[in-house]
Amino acid sequence: WLLLETPVELGAGQLATLRAAHPGNARPVQTLNVRDVVVVDQ
User: Is the pTM of this model over 0.85?
Assistant: First the structure.
């Protein structure tokens, strides 16, 4: 997964296009467990 520090804003039309191209592209939030979250500056 890629997490952005600054959210990306979408208009309603853009969101509809994204959802049409990738239907069902969501899942429930999961606990962190033992996974690391790493910040990479490029």
Answer: no
State how far the alpha carbon of 20 is from the alpha carbons of 5, 12, 14, 16, 31, in Å: 26, 12, 10, 6, 28
Residue-wise pLDDT for 1-42, tens only, equals 778 889 899 999 999 999 999 998 888 888 889 988 888 887
**Cα angle for residues 39, 27, 11 (degrees, 5° grid):** 75
d(CA 21, CA 25): 10
Give the amino acid at 28. Answer: P
